[in-house]
Structures
1.
Amino acid sequence: MRATVDRPGLDSQGRSPLIKIRRVRKGDLSKVRDVIEQAFGDFFERQVGTRPRQVFGGAQYVHHRWLMEPWGCFVAEEGDGKIVGAAVAVMWGTVGVIGPVAVLTNYQNQDIGQQLLTACQGFFDENKATLQGLATYPYSPKHLILYQKFGYKPKGLVVVTSRALDRSPAAATALAKPAPKPGLAVRRYSTLEEARKKQVMQKVRRITNAFWRGFDVAKEIEIVDGLTLGDTLLLEKGREVIGFAVCHLPPNSEAPHGSAYAKLLAIDSRHRKPEHLHALLAGVEELAAASQLPRVVVPAYTYYWTAYQTLLERGYHVDFTMVRMKRGKQEDYEDPSDLVLDDWR
């Protein structure tokens, strides 16, 4: 399929390139990472006037996501084998999430992004996704229009927040020996025996299924555990798991440099008390301090208003904003009182 050309990216004879969309292979991974970082580096430079030293603050999105969901990763390739675009999609049970999607600057406005999204949508159809979503930049008309062409609607503000940890000796001692609420404990998934991990995973599925039928982040927990990208913290009340937080730690994960990153955090809807969210966030902060990291990064979808307000009360501040876009049945399913902090980037 030949793309319409209205900017550079032509071959030596001035013709539009022949673009092939195919799934990512292992040998493509470094090139895919380069394409994504180059495209987004150009985008950020156009927005703010200077190029970031590290795109995404050093966070990595390619290798482990390909291992987790190889059938959802696609590249746009020229006839000579040059990779000029890439897209990553993942299934969380019945929920499909897209991103990142990138096309090299000189190949943009040639419908390559649409071809990559078409491949992602085919992957979602194959896996019977009942809800699909993504996070993008609300100040970029190009991004918004691209996704709107595929039926995605802007739904709500996403804020990526952070908090600098107090690294004084007194604070370090307090974090090393936290005073948990009576009956509450935070445990690391990595410390469990395999049989216990399977039991815990069923409890996590029950928690997420209550928010959206079939919503399942088990593969996120498994990839973090299997590749030692960080850890998943479990909030226990007695013998019951009432919450979890999937945490990434640098350098080879989605955590920015120098930060612990809580990608997915949820409290069982039957136990949705702010004190439970505080206890789990305290566990994330303790994990960061134990890893000698000075900062914690936590996303918040503001539809989950109580969780967002709890973050602010705890001293987190907003670093930047995005917008969540969704398509599917009953796309506005969130209960503002549910204690969920999740990132669809």
2.
Amino acid sequence: MSATVAEAARGPRFRLEPYLEFTKTALAREATYRFDVFTSVGSLAIRLYLLVMVWTALYAHNPAPRALPLHAVITYSAVALLMGLILDIDSTHLLHDKLHDGSIATDFMKPIFVPLYFFCDGMGDVLFRLVLVVPSLALALALVRFDLPPSPAAAAAFGLTFVLGFAVGFLLNLILSCTAFWTLEIGAVQLIVTWLTDLLGGAIVPLVLFPGALRHVVGYLPFAAMYATPLEIYLGLLPPGSYAGAIAAQLGWVVLLGAVATLLWRAGTKRLVVQGG
């Protein structure tokens, strides 16, 4: 009897199973749209072909940068496109959708940790996109020859910085989705952030090709932590002695953006509860 009372006082025990089911459901939902698989892979092939043509033409009529010869910039473009399959996902879109139609109110009535629910749903999207990487990589290898990381340490650092870059992108999207507590519509802002990420993050043009002053400025932005940092490690543009500083910068952005997202979430949910009575 005393044990039962103690358990009731502690509240319901956390169970992982429901959150794994949320992830499986999201994965099954994404897999339903099979045509998207072909369009995603086909789109990557077309973009890679166009980028190769553009870079080849530019290098044919301009002196090649010493640090980035043609084969290196083609590798950069191919790896960036493959990374984009994961980094371009808005894995927090369910939060915005539920805020828009008002169904989030019922989620707060369920015996779940709501932020973890949204995170697990987003991970279902990510797992599906990870499956797309395999045929996309095979197609990219058929179209172009690209280099491998210069060393096992560089490969490991690339993997770590890619994960941290994903975390930065996830938190940026979460912050944008949390603003929907007040604005409801965030589509225009998301387009701007996507454009800034592609341009200033090094997703399209390597930051090493930017003018000196501009390169240093954009290098301190969170967008660079998503693409430029792992890609520069992959190509060997960032020496091993700089890995720790680059990883520390990414971790700093994760902590800062995580704090902002937490504050917005708490303020937004409080506002939602107040409005709901």
